[in-house]
Amino acid sequence: MKRQASGPPHPAFRAFTRALPLTPASVLLLLFLAGPIAYCAYIAFTDLQLTGQAEDSFIGFDNFRTAFGDEAFLNAVWLTLVFTVVSALLGQNTLGLALAALMQRASKPVRTLVGGIVVTAWVLPEVVAGFLLYAFFRREGTLNAVLDWLQLPTQNWLYTLPILAVSFANVWRGTAFSMLVYSAALNEIPKEITEAAEVDGAGGWRRMWHITLPMIRRSIGTNLMLITLQTLSVFGLIWVMTRGGPGGRSQTLPLFMYEEAFQKSMIGYGTAVALLLLVVGSLFSVIYLRLLRTEV
Amino acid sequence: MTSPNTRRLAADAGLLAIAAAFVLPLAWVILSSVDPRADLTVKVPDGVTLDNFDAVLTPEITFTPMLNSLLLCGGGTVLTVICAALAAYPLSRFRSRLNRPFLLTILFATSLPITAIMVPVYALFVQVNLIDTMQGTIFFFAASQLPFAIWLMKNFMDGVPKELEEAAWTDGASSLQSLVRVVLPLMGPGVAVVTVFSFVMMWGNFFVPFMLLLTPEQMPAAVSINEFFGNRGTVIYGQLAAFSVIYSTPVVLLYVGVARRLGGGFALGGAVKG
Amino acid sequence: MRPTAPSSRRSPLRLLLTAALAVTAPGALAACGSGSGSDPDTVEVSYKQSTDNQVRVMDTFLADVKKQFEKANPGKKVKLVPIKAPDSEYYTKVQQMLRSPKTAPDLVYEDTFLINSDITSGYLKPLDDYLADWKDWDQFIDTAKTAAKAEDGKTYGIPDGTDTRGLWFDKAIFEKAGLPSDWQPKSWADLLTAARTIKAKVPDVIPLNVYTGKPAGEAATMQGFEMLLYGTEGATAAGATDPLYDEKSKKWKAGTQGFKDALAFVETVYKEKLGPEVSDALDPNISTRVRGELLPEGKLGINLDGSWLPQDWLPGSGHEWPEWSEKLGLAHMPTQNGQSPGKVSMSGGWTWAIPDKAGNPDLAFEFIETMQSKANAQKWYIANSGIAVRKDVAADPAYVEAQPGIKFFTDLVSSTHYRPAYPAYPKVSTAIQEAMESVTTGDASVAEAAKNYDEELKAATDDQVIEGTEE
């Protein structure tokens, strides 16, 4: 640190003035993020309702007991797991890495074009993306038209396999993020290393497995973390495509929570589910922070 | 051993195949928006018409919601970027015992599923009279984007060498002055990425305004398009597609504009490194 | 903070947050023109706008009343706040608005099925003081008056008509199937037989529509399930009480035999593919599609639905279909095995209510008086294909002859049933829809669905349930 023109001020005072720029962000975060989380923890233990109730009261762990005995809740947990694994871990992550790896070798115009298309899908508003994919998967939609043309059997995807349809929709919408992260990571690998491996005659897959992947280990961890949590939060996409139906077969936790809190007016119960979702997110965060411990 | 040329061709072919799958839904919306008889399948339009655009370009359907979106996302983005820049500076520049816990908290908050707290946020906003106000929604938008924005901003700021600031300090400039005059201009691309990223995220967000705004005339396009879409009784797919195009254009243009100057959005990818 | 909310909680946490937010968001309290308290001369009226952009029946009617009201009360303004949403989402939106004085309108359109629930929550104002000075109130029929009367004996809403339900059928399809044009089924079996005949003889049409599942919302419960349930043997037996709710013990009835029979009927319709495609039946806009597309295009044989359908087909409604009365026939819904009384109908309806947090309740009531005058009410019943709840309108030949079908549906009022619209009813209704949905998709058998209903019912009513005793 440099000397000040007016002599060194008191260290405590200096620490205070230095922390001053943190104030606006801290105030916002405390009021609008920490506040609601604290309030969430409070409502989750009450039986607050949207309608049909004169007084709400504190009911302890009843909401949580109800949840774990509620088949619809367990179904939502299961579907959330399927949705996250299929669309984030398998879909976005693998496809993003494949795109990034191919881009390393492709010609510039193709790279620009393909990158542009994939990123467009990502910047589109959530509801628009949901609507496009609703049109794509519907019985009379594009997918069935293509299958028809290829002489393959068609079906009403949104009705028979809604959770897969919304998972694919999420892959379509979210792959760009992984692609950008991995492209940046692959660009940072020194050329000499890959070239040396090539001279040793290591084939493409072996190079990928033994050299490239270990080198971008950290990016993989970060990326998996972020896309998992983004996927846990997906609401609009599924809401537009299926409303969580039919028969709750694409009802992930965020949709379940909304339905319980507002359509069945059990705000307390919906909030308890929200709290569980937060806890799951927090567990992920903690694992993630362990991964990054050396960095911060 | 394959020659580099064959390998490049193989990579090109692979990429184009993936892109084809990505393009189909996009093609549908573009084609349907100019098709006088649009339905749910991609097909060559039965002629080209701008009637669909004409039909939706009314204050009620397009202008008011778009303006609301602009107010909400513009306000939210400005607030986010200012707060993030201010907060990132001490985190990046000074050693302090506060840094580590603060950064850990920020990283922790980055990964919270915001969707989960919307129900309590709604209940809280009712209690404190912020429900159905633009400013309440803007504050919440900013707060929800802040953790990620601060983190990105700090990563970009770490990339700016300290020597220049130290020169400024020697000349008696305050921290704020050196931040505004020296650091931010040097990290223009970083600020641009944070701005665009925050704006795009807010522009596309449906759940937050859906929960926090109630009166129709305050609804942003994200919510009003959903009402449009709810009208599947006699769906006018062409108009819906036209509105989708209008609503998506600003963010796509914004992204393209920034990406061309920064080399394809890799800046974001770079800043997201662990 | 305006301490208007009769809030039951003053937790330190909330006070702290409130204080903190009040400090940081000074603009929030100087409500920016959207709060109903903002202007003492403006009445804000929230109502449900059809999700079909072509149908603007209510908007047109309210715009007309607004003009009359503003002319008669110089300096006063009416602000219409249309809420465009499918039924179930409309209720949610309205309740969210009613929770805060900032967003509560001065006048709100409330479905009678929800009104008791909202009254319990303290969302609405009792209107007795106003009604005492409003002489037109004597013109309203008694059943309609009780529709918006709460358990405390006070009245909270002014009904704007009622409705009944029956079977609509397409004469052209019936002719192709060799069914009579004056068709009148005597039992559920008759109804299913007709549907099966259509399925066999007329391809490419939907034989029978029965609303089902959560996306259809209250339409599934009332037009679908209750039209069946209230005609079951147990519900029509001598001395039988309401099949859903036991007045004596003040408890809800767990799945009775009648409940299972009604579910079995729904299951049969969808299992034998006599109904719409399940994916279409479970689309939130199915009722809009039935009225806007399927019936006018001759793609639906029999439709179990409400008396209000023609409102969409009147001149100026966007889907004019003047020939509907020649193309469609009407039949009443039969009881399960044709036992006495032979007919079943349910009645509900909507009311105009004044929110507890309304800024201008007096002005709002003046607006109701204008809106529900004889002339305006008559205009509305006809535009909306509603059943009159004012005696003077019901007796007016101009009203009776205004539309084919009015007489048929008005005659059903004598044999109609009302829902047990107690505060827990909306949740009970959702539980019914879930049971229907699970037998529709085939995810559960009738027995399983009835068992799940019993569990849901306990949760929805705080265990106020008695095990099904068939009377």
Automatic annotation (TrEMBL), chain A:
Domain of life: Bacteria
Subcellular location: Cell membrane
UniProt main location, coarse: membrane
SUPFAM superfamilies assigned: MetI-like
Recorded topology in the membrane: Multi-pass membrane protein
Start and end residues of each ABC transmembrane type-1 domain: 78-288
Transmembrane segments: 20-45, 76-101, 113-137, 157-182, 224-246, 266-289
Keyword Transport: yes
Record key words, sorted: Cell membrane, Membrane, Transmembrane, Transmembrane helix, Transport
Protein's UniProt keywords contain Coiled coil: no
CDD domains linked: TM_PBP2 (cd06261)
Family that this chain belongs to: Belongs to the binding-protein-dependent transport system permease family.
Name of the protein: Sugar ABC transporter permease
TrEMBL record, chain B:
Keywords: Cell membrane, Membrane, Transmembrane, Transmembrane helix, Transport
Transmembrane segments: 9-31, 69-89, 101-125, 137-153, 191-214, 234-256
Location in or out of the cell: Cell membrane
PROSITE patterns reported for this sequence: ABC_TM1
SUPFAM superfamilies, alphabetized: MetI-like (SSF161098)
Membrane-related topology note: Multi-pass membrane protein
Chief location of this protein within or outside the cell: membrane
CDD domains reported in the protein's UniProt record: TM_PBP2 (cd06261)
Limits of the ABC transmembrane type-1 domain: 66-258
Assigned protein family: Belongs to the binding-protein-dependent transport system permease family.
PANTHER family xref list: INNER MEMBRANE ABC TRANSPORTER PERMEASE PROTEIN YCJP, MALTOSE TRANSPORT SYSTEM PERMEASE-RELATED
UniProt name for this protein: Carbohydrate ABC transporter permease
Species annotation: Streptomyces akebiae
From TrEMBL, chain C:
Protein name: Extracellular solute-binding protein
Record's keyword annotation contains Signal: yes
Coiled coil: none
Pfam annotation, one family: SBP_bac_1
InterPro entries: Bact_solute-bd_prot1, SBP, TAT_signal
Organism: Streptomyces akebiae
SUPFAM superfamilies: Periplasmic binding protein-like II (SSF53850)
N-terminal signal peptide: 1-30
Keyword list, A-Z: Signal
Gene3D superfamilies the UniProt entry points to: Periplasmic binding protein-like II
